[in-house]
């Protein structure tokens, strides 16, 4: 009788052990929203401490390959929070991998398409508003956008944990909705933006066309970053991955990646949980 009981018990034990191993091997992905330059409560040491606590196998950076050599050593670095934290972390953790996740050739793309500076669009909206030329519905859009910008300026001085809370994600999401969709309504529906031209590296385009290209690229950029995160996850399965990104991008990445967890076999984590 004991012999017959031993077999199913062993099988059950092996099954449980396999489940535990599967759970341990599942990729953990943590997206950390950051600020690039020191504030009252966030600097490179803040980010370094989080990395030390998490001990990731791979750190994905808001950079393209232009900053890396072919062996993924750094070709050049920047005096920014994330870069300074990563340089220090790399010196102390030789086995950690560092990979780019940014849209390849981001800056060149912006120059080529004349979208490296959108201030002309915002300045024109502000002028039309101050001259009381904007229709009432557009004035409301502009005023709400300004309010959201002020709110996020205050968030800039928050702790890293506050930057990575759902409440901040939601605030950024609304602000970006206004910037890329509602302000575009103003640009598309007021003739001044189709009439005013600006010089690019190759030709002259209207402010309307500039803003159309700008909004398109920002979504393309975010989706490319998601694709790159999933690419690195696929190449290095069952690892602990940290993606460091400016916190204005975090909400988009979180919202899109949470639906990919089952398909791509990973689990989204918050660094403070």
Describe this structure in words.
The chain is an alpha/beta fold. It is 59% helix and 12% strand. Strands 3-2-6-1-7 form a five-stranded parallel β-sheet, sandwiched between helices. The chain has a two-stranded antiparallel ribbon with strand order 4-5. Helix 10 crosses helix 11. The longest helix is centred in the C-terminal third of the chain and has 29 residues, at 207-235. The termini are far apart.
Q: What proportion of the residues form beta strands (DSSP E)?
A: 5-15%
Number of helices: 12
**Separation of the first and last Cα atoms:** 47 Å
Strand order of the largest sheet: 3-2-6-1-7
Provide the low-confidence segments as ranges.
1-23
* Structural Rg: 23 Å
From the helix content, strand content and strand pairing, which structural class follows? alpha/beta
Shape call: globular
Mean pLDDT, nearest integer? 91
């Amino acid at each position: 009788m004991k012999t017959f009981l031993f077999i199913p018990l062993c099988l059950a034990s092996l099954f449980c052990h396999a489940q535990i191993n599967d759970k341990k091997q599942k990729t953990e992905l943590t997206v950390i929203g950051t600020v690039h330059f020191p504030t009252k409560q966030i600097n490179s040491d803040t980010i370094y401490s989080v990395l030390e606590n998490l001990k990731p196998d791979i750190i994905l950076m808001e950079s393209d390959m232009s900053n890396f050599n072919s062996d993924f050593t750094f070709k050049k670095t920047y005096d920014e929070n994330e870069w300074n934290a990563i340089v220090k972390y790399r010196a102390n953790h030789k086995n950690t991998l560092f990979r780019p996740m940014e849209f390849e050739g981001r800056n060149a793309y912006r120059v080529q398409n004349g979208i490296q500076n959108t201030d002309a669009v915002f300045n024109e909206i502000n002028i039309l508003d101050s001259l009381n030329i904007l229709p009432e519905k557009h004035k409301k859009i502009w005023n709400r956008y300004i309010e959201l910008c002020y709110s996020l300026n205050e968030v800039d001085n928050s702790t890293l944990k506050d930057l990575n809370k759902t409440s901040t994600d939601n605030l950024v999401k609304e602000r970006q909705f206004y910037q890329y969709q509602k302000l575009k309504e103003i640009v598309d529906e007021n003739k001044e933006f189709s009439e005013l031209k600006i010089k690019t590296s190759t030709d002259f385009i209207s402010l309307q066309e500039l803003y159309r290209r700008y909004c398109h690229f920002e979504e393309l950029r975010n989706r490319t970053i998601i694709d790159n995160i999933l690419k690195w996850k696929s190449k290095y399965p069952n690892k602990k991955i940290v993606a460091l990104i400016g916190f204005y991008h975090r909400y988009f990445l979180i919202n899109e990646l949470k639906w990919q967890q089952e398909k791509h076999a990973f689990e989204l984590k918050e660094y403070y949980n």
